[in-house]
Amino acid sequence: MLAQHSTLTKFGMTHPLTRSPQQAGLELLEVDYPEKIKEIGRFRIKGWKMEKGVDPAFFSKDTWIDSLDQRANHWVITKNQQIVAASRLSFHDSLHDVPYADFMKDEHKRLVENRRIASINRLVVAPDYRGIGLSGLLDQVRIDRAVAQKAEVIIAFPQLVRLEPLKKKGFILIDQLENIPEMPERPFFLMIKNL
């Protein structure tokens, strides 16, 4: 059974997972910066560096940490105290500091102007733990927090494989965007969920 950190249970959240032997001993934790941030940054690199279509130079770094990490909300799922999944949620009063907002077209920007924005990003699940519901769990935790914090819209910039799961969570596909430098050969999309 997946254990939940007390800050999550106070919102009355429940997150069912697919039954799997891999779920035994999994624990969902919300972590504050800088707790575990270096471990999370290393996990992001490790989780992506062997994927097709990524920039090998970017993913040869030791960690993937940026300035937004300092004020973002972070969740990890651990097994035996090792991270097997991680994600981030951040809040924005404008598009100025939304990751990848520069890739949005003007008509996309108008959809979220003058609204309290949340963005979900940096979702990574270790290959051995994919397909058992961890990304959906982390999506729901972030959506629930965005609602609790009175965000008006959530922006996501998912990869192709994440389109259908996010549609099931109420996100609308807006457009395919220019591929990002970190992943130059992987399709990159914009999705929005109005809250």
TrEMBL record:
It comes from the Bacteria. Residues 26-195 form the N-acetyltransferase domain. InterPro entries: Acyl_CoA_acyltransferase, GNAT_dom. The keyword Transferase applies. Transmembrane segments: none annotated. It holds the Pfam family Acetyltransf_5. PROSITE patterns: GNAT (PS51186). GO terms for molecular function: acyltransferase activity, transferring groups other than amino-acyl groups. Keywords: Transferase. This is GNAT family N-acetyltransferase. It comes from Arundinibacter roseus.
